[in-house]
Amino acid sequence: MDLTKYMKKGLVEQKPGQILAFAAYTNKIPNIVKFTIGEPDFNTPDHIKKAAEQSIEDNHSHYAPSNGTPGLRKAASEFLAEKYGQKYDPDEILVTNGVTESIYDMLTAVLNPGDVMVIPTPIFPLYIGDAISLGAKVVQIDTSKDGFKLKPEKLQAVIDEYGDRVRLLVMNYPTNPTGVMYSQEELNAIADVIRDKPIFALCDEIYSELNYDQEHASMEKTLHDQVVLMNGVSKAWAMTGYRIGIVAAPKPILDQIAKIHQAITTTEPTPMQDAAEEAFANGKDDALPMKEEFKKRRDVLVEGLEKLGFDCVQPQGAFYVFAKIPEGLEQDDTKLIYDLADNAHVAVTAGSFFAKGGAGYVRLSYAVAMDQIEEGLKRLAKYVEEHQK
């Protein structure tokens, strides 16, 4: 008997994660240059590591409050207010197992089967898989012809079509995979479309400290009561392995999301929360040196790719370049990345892995050392010369 036939339909219908599958494939290739890594290649700042060590020494080894330690929630509240003018009380902050859990908790708390989640694409595919497993309908808005930004009129058209079924809008900025950032005016215009409608806005701002060309803008500033804000310590402090994310929302909304969190993880490891508290409280500018290095890498990578014929979306944040495959090379991005891995020993990520609008592109992460970027560009140049028709 095949019992998988009787499991959750939305889950069984999902394909395995293509990004992780490709990463596993490239791990077997020796001496490969990886532009696939979605995490900083820097070390966690020493003062944060010492805070984790001190927490262990102080025997902070018991359950923390489910919503997070008071110290971490206070530090996160103060960080958001000081850095971005986002006003959340500590009891409006929930600590999760990375933003990955934040997304799952929020979607589970909001979406009923048949509800519509609207998402601009290309986008990191996690949101889509979660929504499908919950029985929601996902409406993708392809932004590839609009500078990879959601246009208010296209959002309005979806609302006009689906009406009261629309329950959630997902916004991620700076955006993975394109590195595109919205201006405050652009976010305000999008907010106006859903204002005073029973529609939540999931605003994933995990890359907020990695804005290169402007101050961080946020939909929260103009739509506070409908926004569920997500952030964390993974990217700005190179703490991906600490697995600490935060959700910020008006308390009545947060209280419902917290019920899902309580059911699946109870609480996060106390020493990791103490380390995250140190990051938010005393590491407010820790990302600045890292950001300067990322800008240098970005400029070298973009210039090198464009010389090879790749048309690049100019990254304004995060640490990704989204590049159009040149004419004359294999246009099926999935076939191309496997061939690049096998024959050039260069790993990049297929644009089609990031939903509608991504086909024909590749994503390259510049969260890798400069010497690796330079070596990767040399290998790409040789590949292009040998394979371009």
UniProtKB/TrEMBL annotation:
Asked whether the keyword Transferase is assigned, the reply is: yes
Which of UniProt's keywords are assigned here?
A: Aminotransferase, Pyridoxal phosphate, Transferase
Quick check: keyword Membrane in the entry? Answer: no
* SUPFAM superfamilies recorded: PLP-dependent transferases (SSF53383)
Q: Which Pfam families match?
A: Aminotran_1_2
Give the GO molecular function terms.
pyridoxal phosphate binding; transaminase activity
PROSITE patterns recorded: AA_TRANSFER_CLASS_1
Regarding protein family, the annotation reads: Belongs to the class-I pyridoxal-phosphate-dependent aminotransferase family.
| Name listed for the protein in its UniProt record | Aminotransferase
Biological source species? Lactobacillus kalixensis DSM 16043
